[in-house]
Design goal:
Length: about 375
């Protein structure tokens, strides 16, 4: 669901659909068996409209500690009237929230995901590419697993493996953007290992209100591992959370930088533009091997489990990090709604930039 849609539906319709989903989520009290570290279950219906994919429908279910092993199962099923299909399953033990701020010997997180989208964007590579309306079908399958060890409540090391299969088809070479020679056009596999180290003093994984997180991750993809590509990626992300005025009024900040070395398909390049990066731009709007991104959010309560957020994002891409500067950053601002369940958060965002206004419906905080 980290797909981007054109803003052609009146705001009131989208907000109504979001609030209607919240109402449906509470019609059955069994969907509200909420407990942070005990056996719990949350389910949420997905009802939305997107001008590219049409009316979307589906659901998300999160089960925790059903077998008293502090495990979690997360299932999402989604389809739309214009052709998107998205299925995701994730298993974690211990669950992210259970192990937050804890010392533990081993954690395992595994995810299987398949997504088919009939309206995919591609604008070329670089920080100054032009906007276009060319769209084509694409799909991907991904399996990823990560093992972690917390040698203190705040310091964690990780080791993982990821396999992705990408398929891009239905494009027209005369568009002048994507062609048969574009890295990642057609079908290809990406297979590699990753390692990471994280310092995390946040008071929650689901809804942090204070603390600091810094995460350094490296990934090596090589044909030796069954990949069609040889590249390495390096990512450094830092997040900061602080209370303002009262406990539920939060200032959250993020700075993210990334570099890719070697030959990588467009699907693996550093990206600015979607519901997780710059929320005022189309998905995949700016691509290159390096990127920098900064985000700032002010989060506040509205009524009971419903909250709001005002945000701004700014970022840019470049062939290398050493070529980055403070010029030509792509910025946006926006607002959103959050509905808080104990096991996950429902998110609605509306971001505006000089290229238009975008709508997002997803789960979890952006950072």
């Amino acid at each position: 669901m980290n797909r981007i849609s054109r803003y052609t539906v009146p705001n009131i319709v989208l907000i109504f659909l979001f609030l209607f989903s919240l109402t449906m989520a509470q019609t059955d009290s069994s969907w509200q068996q909420i407990s942070t570290k005990e056996r719990s279950a949350n389910a949420f219906p997905i009802i939305m409209y997107d001008s590219d994919i049409g009316f979307g429908f589906g659901g998300k279910v999160v089960l925790k500690n059903r077998y008293q092993k502090q495990e979690a199962f997360d299932v999402t099923v989604f389809a739309s009237t214009k052709g998107e299909q998205w299925y995701a399953f994730q298993f974690s033990v211990p669950d992210f929230e259970f192990r937050q701020g804890q010392k533990y010997v081993l954690s395992i997180d595994s995810r299987i995901e398949w997504d088919k989208l009939l309206k995919t964007n591609y604008f070329g590579i670089g920080n100054f590419t032009e906007d276009n309306n060319f769209q084509f079908p694409s799909e991907f399958f991904r399996f990823a697993t990560m093992m972690g060890h917390a040698f203190s409540p705040r310091w964690i090391i990780e080791l993982g493996y990821q396999f992705s299969h990408y398929s891009v088809y239905g494009y027209e070479p005369e568009w002048g953007t994507i062609t048969d020679e574009t890295p990642g056009a057609g079908q290809s596999n990406v297979s590699g290992f990753s390692s990471g180290i994280r310092f995390d003093s946040r008071n929650s994984h689901i809804n942090p209100t204070r603390g600091f997180r810094i995460y350094l991750k490296t990934e090596l993809t090589n044909k030796t591992f069954g990949s069609d590509w040889n590249f390495a990626s390096y990512r450094l992300e830092s997040n900061f959370y602080a209370n303002l005025y009262r406990r539920k009024y939060i200032l959250a900040a993020r700075f993210w930088t990334q570099q890719i070395d070697g030959s990588a398909p467009v699907q693996e390049l550093s990206m600015i533009g979607d519901g997780w990066t710059a929320r005022g731009y189309k998905a995949g709007r700016f691509l290159d091997k390096a990127m920098m991104l900064a985000s700032l959010e002010y989060r506040f309560p509205i009524f009971r489990k419903l909250g709001g957020v005002i945000f701004t994002d700014a970022g840019r891409v470049a062939p290398k990090l050493k070529l980055m500067n403070l010029n030509n950053w792509h910025s946006n601002w926006g607002w959103g709604l959050r509905y808080f369940l104990q096991t996950f958060i429902v998110r609605f965002d509306m971001g505006s930039s000089k290229e238009g206004t975008r709508i997002f419906f997803n789960f979890g905080h952006v950072f």
